[in-house]
């Protein structure tokens, strides 16, 4: 048991002379953390759950009336909310797929002996270390129709990446892919280098071609760690807010989190937005659970 | 019936030469064992034949065709690895079927082949299991099955049973022999265990520091070692080898194992056969069973003191103190009752080996 393993305070120590006990010191570390968690995480979580059953508006002094499940019913029957969800789903699929393809591909390229491998890997990780808002701001410049370098490089003239209703969402996804592919790359690289070399030798002896080896040996063995990368990226992509908010205001690129923000802080529908936040929470937990189930199945071998 | 040939193969790892001018011919259906200490280049040679390692010079021919520039997958050779190298995410069935699926064989044919091999190797009950749920012996059976299933031109085995415990090793050894007799494909088997080599091989190839030392049947390498290295590497317990000096004593020759000892008697014809050879010093090698021990004094026997007795059940290995050195003899169990006993020993001239100490080469003298 953990308590038995805990060593007692040395009676000669400074802490002991001040009259502190093991328990005092332990509490001094744990209690602030727990208080912080309760005040800033658990309390708002429960409080907003309460709000989600009311018609409360934070902008007025009017008392909150209990409305039961009316908010949830209204949201789930609202075709605009569903269109936001559809946009988000499209965004998640495009963005995560792109990150996995690019990240895994770069990892495959790096998984060999090349000069300056460490330096190249570190440089490739840089986008991931930037702030979302900063990335959003300078990609907005890159995408700029009149002086943006992307139009210049691709020779697209004055193509409006961020104002084009069909393109805006993809433009945000491209930025997200640029920023987060290194994360998938890093995890894939760890997975790839963990595949024993002798399995590739055995496959070569067994006359397996390059593609057969990739799909039957490499991919299945990297799958568990790749799965973890996908779980993380899906959760993050589902909640994307800052990047999309800074880059575009196109309704066709209005992700569910942007809708939520507008509902809560522009329309001040506090009760309604709390309900929407809960719907999102349940969805993210649900999707993650599906992945985790699959991950456990993959890991069984 | 695949014929493999190595011609003047050289291989360097950086500045270290790991294979030095290797020439070897392997006949169809032959079971060749490459024997040597770790780091002697035997595994590198095997991997070069498999195509997992490139060679710097020379030719490797399979059925007369040079293959040194072909990829492993184009050589149609199967290999069993020391680490088994089973695909951890596949069942036993999928592992065995892998080489067939990789070449796009039809589903029905694959099933027939896999079940046939599983029956031969007695792994039918394990087909649905994952490798992680298998014992070492079973893993090795599966690895052999994966190699056998496609009926390859040749089988290469890299210390396939080295990772198993002693009892299982003996069992698998017999099984590999049984399989080879049944399937009969050209096999190259690498090991550092001379018992394995002796019991399995049609011919043994002994390597040392990248140089091929001797090629021959187990009997040949045991009875006629061409060098001190082979003499001491093959056989357990190890052959007694010591520098020796000759003294002509009219009716016979005395070979002194050590300046201080009484010397062992040899027939006079030894002098003629030696004929001034052994200029770099003479070494006498005698296997423990060539040391004859008697408890009563006999003509030609020298009194010696038993020092250490290792009882092995079927026989004993007795260390006899000869001058400053030790001579190991093989005696019937319990023949020498206790250490410290004085017994009488002589060397059987017919089983003695003479070597040039300087070059380490055998002088080829048989008495």
Automatic annotation (TrEMBL), chain A:
InterPro entries: MetI-like, MetI-like_sf, Sugar_ABC_transporter
Protein transport keyword on record: no
Alphabetical UniProt keywords: Membrane, Transmembrane, Transmembrane helix, Transport
Chain segments annotated as coiled-coil in the UniProt record: none
Gene3D superfamilies recorded: MetI-like
Membrane topology term: Multi-pass membrane protein
Statement: the UniProt record of this protein carries the keyword Cell division: no
Cellular compartments annotated: Cell membrane
Domain spans labelled ABC transmembrane type-1: 85-291
CDD domains listed in its UniProt record: TM_PBP2
Membrane-spanning ranges: 27-47, 91-110, 122-142, 167-192, 213-232, 275-292
Family, as annotated: Belongs to the binding-protein-dependent transport system permease family.
Protein known as: Sugar ABC transporter permease
């Amino acid at each position: 048991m953990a308590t038995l393993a805990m060593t007692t305070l040395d009676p000669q120590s400074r802490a002991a002379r001040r009259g502190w006990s093991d328990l005092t010191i332990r509490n001094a570390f744990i209690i602030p953390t727990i208080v912080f968690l309760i005040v800033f995480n658990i309390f708002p979580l429960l409080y907003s759950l309460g709000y989600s059953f009311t018609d409360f508006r934070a902008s007025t002094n009017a008392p909150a009336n209990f409305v039961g499940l009316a908010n949830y019913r209204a949201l789930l029957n609202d075709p605009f909310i569903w269109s936001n969800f559809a946009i988000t789903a499209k965004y998640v699929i495009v963005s995560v797929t792109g990150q996995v393809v690019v990240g895994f591909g770069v990892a495959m390229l790096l998984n060999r002996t090349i000069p300056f491998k460490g330096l190249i890997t570190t440089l490739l990780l840089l986008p991931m270390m930037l702030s979302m808002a900063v990335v959003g701001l300078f990609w907005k410049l890159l995408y700029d129709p009149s002086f943006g370098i992307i139009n210049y490089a691709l020779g697209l003239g004055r193509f409006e990446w961020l104002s084009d209703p069909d393109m805006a969402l993809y433009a945000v996804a491209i930025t997200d892919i640029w920023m987060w592919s290194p994360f998938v790359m890093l995890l894939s690289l760890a997975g790839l280098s963990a595949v024993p070399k002798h399995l590739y030798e055995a496959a070569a002896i067994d006359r397996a071609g390059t593609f057969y080896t990739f799909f039957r040996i490499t991919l299945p063995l990297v799958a568990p760690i790749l799965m973890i990368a996908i779980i993380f990226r899906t959760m993050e992509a589902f909640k994307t807010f800052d990047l999309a908010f800074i880059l575009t205001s196109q309704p066709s690129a209005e992700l569910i989190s942007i809708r939520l923000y507008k509902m809560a802080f522009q329309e001040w529908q506090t009760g309604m937005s709390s309900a929407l936040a809960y719907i999102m929470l349940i969805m993210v937990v649900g999707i993650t659970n599906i992945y985790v189930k699959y991950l456990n199945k993959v890991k069984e071998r | 019936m695949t014929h493999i040939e190595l011609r003047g193969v050289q291989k360097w790892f950086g500045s270290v030469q790991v294979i030095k001018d290797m020439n070897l011919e392997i006949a169809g259906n032959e079971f060749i064992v490459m024997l040597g200490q770790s780091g002697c280049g035997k595994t590198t040679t095997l991997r070069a034949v498999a195509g997992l390692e490139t060679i710097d010079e020379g030719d490797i021919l399979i059925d007369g065709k040079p293959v040194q520039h072909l990829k492993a997958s184009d050589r149609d050779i199967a290999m069993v690895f020391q680490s088994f190298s089973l695909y951890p995410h596949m069942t036993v069935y999928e592992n065995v079927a892998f080489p067939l699926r990789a070449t796009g064989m039809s589903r029905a044919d694959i099933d027939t082949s896999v079940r046939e091999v599983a029956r031969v190797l007695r792994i039918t009950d394990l087909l649905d299991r994952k490798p992680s749920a298998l014992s070492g012996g079973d893993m090795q059976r599966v690895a052999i099955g994966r190699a056998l299933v496609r009926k390859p031109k040749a089988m290469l085995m890299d210390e396939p049973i080295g990772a198993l415990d002693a009892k299982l090793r003996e069992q698998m050894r017999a099984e590999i022999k049984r399989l080879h007799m049944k399937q009969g494909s050209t096999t190259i088997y690498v090991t550092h265990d001379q018992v394995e080599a002796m019991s399995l091989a049609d011919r043994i190839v002994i390597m040392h520091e990248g140089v091929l030392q001797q090629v021959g049947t187990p009997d040949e390498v045991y009875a006629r070692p061409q060098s001190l290295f082979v003499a001491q590497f093959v056989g357990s317990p190890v052959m007694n080898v010591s520098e020796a000096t000759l003294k002509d004593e009219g009716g016979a020759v005395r070979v002194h194992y050590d300046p201080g000892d009484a010397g062992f008697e040899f027939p006079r014809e030894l002098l003629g056969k030696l004929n001034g050879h052994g200029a770099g010093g003479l070494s006498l090698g005698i296997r423990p069973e060539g040391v004859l021990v008697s408890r009563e004094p006999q003509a030609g026997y020298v009194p010696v003191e038993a020092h250490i007795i290792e009882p092995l059940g079927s026989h004993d290995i007795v260390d006899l103190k000869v001058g400053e050195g030790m001579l190991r003899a093989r005696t019937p169990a319990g023949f020498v009752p206790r250490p410290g006993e004085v017994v009488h020993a002589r060397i059987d001239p017919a089983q003695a080996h003479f070597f040039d100490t300087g070059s380490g080469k055998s002088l080829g003298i048989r008495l």
